[in-house]
Design goal:
The chain is about 20% helix and about 45% strand. The protein has 4 helices and 15 strands. The protein has a 13-stranded antiparallel beta sheet. The protein has a two-stranded antiparallel ribbon with strand order 7-8. A hairpin with a 6-residue loop joins strand 14 and strand 15. The longest helix is centred in the first third of the chain and has 30 residues.
C-alpha cells in the first residue's frame, strides 16, 4: 500500500504537466497555427475610445518558428519583418542590408513585432498550473508560463484559459527584468481568437487592438525566409 501511495504521488506532477501541455496546445489552436496567412489590422484608440492610428499587416507563418510580416499600409508599404527562431530582421525598401531587431520592437501602439510574428505558447514556454479561478462569469485555469529561451518576446506570462475549452481569456506579459510590460485580453468568436487588446501596464491610457481579419492556409516559398533574398527582392510574388 505504501509503495502504491508513493507511486501515485510521483505520478501526479507528471499528469499535471501533461494536462498543462494539452491546455497550451488547445489555446494555440484558438490563436491559429500551421502554415497560414493572417491579415491583421492594428488600431490604437484614445482613452475616450476615439480612433488614433491604424496599420495593416499580412503575416505569413511556417513551421520551425518562422514568420514573415509584410507591412501593407501606405506609410510603411514595402517594409518587412522576418522571424527565424529567436532572430528578427527588419527590411526596408531600397536597403540591401537587413537590420537586426528584437521581438520587443514596437510596430504601433503597444503592439510589438513579437506580438504578431510569434504564436506558439506550447512550443516556447514551460507551463505550470496555478489553480482554478473565476474570470468574470467563467470558470478558468490560471497558468504560469516561463520561457524556454531568452530570445522570446516575454520571459514570463500569467495566462488565464477557459476551464472547459482552454480558450485564451487574458494574460499578463512580463519582460526579462520581471517587469510587467503589458496586459492582454482576447476576444473570441466560437472557434478562434478574433482580436487581442493590449494595454500598457503603467500608463493605462491608450488601447491597442490587434484584429485578425482573416486567416487562410498558405504555403510560401522557402526563399522568402532568407533575409538576404528579401533584401534583394523588394517585391514578393
Amino acid at each position: 500500500m505504501k509503495t502504491l501511495l508513493i507511486a501515485l504521488a510521483l505520478a501526479a506532477p507528471l499528469a499535471q504537466a501533461a494536462d498543462v501541455a494539452t491546455m497550451l496546445k488547445n489555446a494555440d489552436a484558438f490563436r491559429g497555427s500551421g502554415q497560414q496567412q493572417i491579415d491583421t489590422l492594428i488600431e490604437v484608440s484614445n482613452p475616450d475610445g476615439s480612433p488614433d492610428k491604424e496599420r495593416r499587416y499580412t503575416v505569413l507563418t511556417a513551421p520551425e518558428r518562422r514568420s514573415l510580416v509584410l507591412m501593407t499600409s501606405p506609410a510603411e508599404k514595402g517594409q518587412k519583418v522576418l522571424m527565424l527562431g529567436d532572430d528578427f530582421w527588419l527590411l526596408m525598401p531600397g536597403s540591401q542590408r537587413p537590420m537586426r531587431i528584437t521581438p520587443t520592437q514596437r510596430l504601433l501602439g503597444d503592439a510589438s513585432t513579437g506580438d504578431i510574428a510569434t504564436q506558439s505558447w506550447s512550443e516556447d514556454y514551460e507551463g505550470a498550473l496555478i489553480g482554478e479561478e473565476r474570470c468574470e462569469a467563467l470558470a478558468c485555469w490560471h497558468l504560469q508560463l516561463k520561457a524556454k529561451r531568452r530570445g522570446v518576446t516575454y520571459q514570463r506570462i500569467e495566462l488565464w484559459l477557459g476551464k472547459a475549452r482552454h480558450e485564451p481569456l487574458h494574460a499578463e506579459l512580463y519582460v526579462q527584468s520581471e517587469k510587467l510590460a503589458k496586459k492582454a485580453r482576447f476576444i473570441m468568436d466560437k472557434t478562434q481568437v478574433t482580436e487581442m487588446v493590449l494595454q500598457d501596464a503603467l500608463s493605462n491610457r491608450k488601447l491597442t487592438h490587434v484584429r485578425y481579419q482573416s486567416r487562410k492556409p498558405r504555403q510560401v516559398p522557402q526563399s522568402w525566409f532568407n533575409p538576404m533574398f528579401l533584401a534583394r527582392s523588394p517585391v514578393l510574388e
